[in-house]
Amino acid sequence: MLQFHHDEISELPSGATLLASSPMYAHQAFRVGRHVYGLQFHIETTPEVVHEWAGRDVVGVASSPWDRETICRLSDEAHPHIQETWAPFAGRFAELVRTHAQQAA
């Protein structure tokens, strides 16, 4: 997954269920109750978005182990896999939201 942030939560909210973690970030995804989800990674990116972020976030790039060009290259290489993995997730999540909104109406 793509990480592009400076802030992170260090402790899950009370009653939260951990859904995903990584060696760098212990709390990647979590759920609170049945309807609240928290993600600390990006599933919505495109190569163009990452290139823009890498160009604007001088501090973030400087604090990473890579330079801007390497970040962009690695992102470009990863995006087909990210799309393949996360497009179904995003579609299912959107369907959950639509279904809930219809039931609430």
Automatic annotation (TrEMBL):
Recorded hits in InterPro entries, A to Z, give:
ChyE-like, Class_I_gatase-like
Q: Which domain of life is it from?
A: Bacteria
Entry protein name: Uncharacterized protein
Organism of provenance: Blastococcus brunescens
